[in-house]
User: What shape does this take?
Amino acid sequence: MFDLDRIRRDTPAAVSSIFLDSAGSSLPPDPVVDATVAHIRREAVVGGYRAANERMADLAAVKTSIARLIGATPSGIALSDSATRSWSDFFYSVPLTRGDRILLCQVEYASNAIAALQRATATGASVEFVPSDPSGQIDLAALENMLDERVRIVSLVHAPTNGGLVNPAREVSELAHRVGALVLLDACQSIGQVRVDVGELGVDALSATGRKWLRGPRGTGFLYVRPGLAETLEPPALDLHSAQWTGEREYQLAPDASRFEFWECSVAARLGLGVAVDYLLDIGIDAVQDAVSARAEHLRAGLRTVAGVTVHDLGDRRSGIVSFTVDGRNPTDVRDELAAKGITVTVSHRRSTLVDMNLRGLDSVIRASPHYFVTFDQLDELVASMHTGRGH
Ligand SMILES: Cc1ncc(COP(=O)(O)O)c(C=O)c1O
Assistant: This one.
């Protein structure tokens, strides 16, 4: 249930400050912090192994909760320590040979692009960027024209790091599957603020992080792999959890997505992630999506009234990321001045989404990402602050 008073009581810093960086690393609610810290304290009493053994059922439930959130089954989830780890573990396991094609989107995240370029060099595959259409979303007609049977993988960023659009994942999956290409959805910025149902979207794999819109601890993330697909892929690195040493010269891969997991992890952080996902499920993703969208639109409308401020968000469908610049002001200076007033925003730099920022002639943008725990009055305070000193 969406009870803003309770939610804000669970998030003391959402009251004592104006926190607008859930696209960076959000404020975890108290139950997440308590579960994480309690486990570290328990490890200090009985040791990490006994402490983990005591929580085996809760650890297994983390995957069940994530699976519920995205409409999957637990065997399709691999827990990891970041979105990038999840994305690359899947990406590097897809076989590529000379002449194969990798399609990335215009708003591709730098880490994904770097991995694709590295693999292209190693395998003789090519990397191509699908342009965006005038709305800012991926150009579906251009994608359709680019697709042929040499395309092995289409990477789509669901919600980019540098602006407020949401890409049409279902349409991309439909087109890509006509030529047998795999669709890897980077849901790092959408999971936790937008309804993401892997069945509806039809994606083959999805990568996500815990620390952003899910409000989990840092160092958490997960990979989803569609049923039947994980069994056909061999991850680039294995250990005694992703595979079993069955004979002197033999090993057997885990039968499901856990072949993408290593044994060692922060148990405390994973338990915290489970609590974060349950917290979200309890509020309901539809209520969260509506609340985030209403806040982001309110902020955009407010910022548009400030002389010298340009809001840069594109897309027919928009996320909770609000990106803007102020004429004659360095975004980093604006961020620092707002921080001094207790308002946390961040800056998204060209290097994170190089192709898109170059094409739009942007070097960096101020990024405000209000989650559902922010009040409209707090957003008005940011706008008022921009009016009085344009960030001074
Ligand atoms: C769109 C997108 N993809 C991937 C990432 C990388 O996430 P992580 O730092 O958890 O690896 C980010 C981080 O900001 C992102 O915004």
